[in-house]
Predict the structure.
Amino acid sequence: MDISHRRTKSDMISSMPARRYSTREARAAYVDRRLEELYPNPAIPLDHRDAYTLLVAVVLSAQCTDKRVNLTTPALFALADTPEKMAQVPVAKILEIIRPCGLSPQKSRAISELSRLIVERHGGKVPATFEELEALPGVGHKTASVVMSQAFGQPAFPVDTHIFRLAHRWRLSNGKSVEQTERDLKKLFPTERWNALHLRIIYYGREHCTARGCDGTICEICRHLRG
């Protein structure tokens, strides 16, 4: 008998994961299931008290670590933790406090101006729509998405550097932009999963599938999806 075409049991087993996760949908289902096991109740990594303090913290987090933001905001919020109070603080004073977060001149002006506009346009309440949030200084789509999902419980899928990297490593998206990656992920995962899932991916990207610590073959999920 010609045994050149015979396959051993180990051959068949080793080939199964590749077939099992040959589609984006299959990979997405596994990622969703495994991340929920690892992070059943993911906490918002930015310390905050309400929608306004979350908004300010997210603005500060641009090109800055959450750890640094959390070290900076207690002093800022001790000075002013409402739009009304912040609008009365000189920009120079805000700048002095938030300097460690980087991009402090732009961020201090944005925090001062968005606080003033929230008071003038929205009665001191953080607006709860994407359109109104993105009209505020320093608030782009990602910042608005975080606030909408984590402060107001509206479905959103903010894509940061961790999510962008992992979405490509796990072959969930081949989008060249954050916008396309967000669209791809929203198609793959049920709407009711978005808010927790984006946090789970961030935590996994920080703790396991880091930019330098994993090249797409080392962490558990990367190994599993490769077969």
In short: The mean pLDDT is 92.
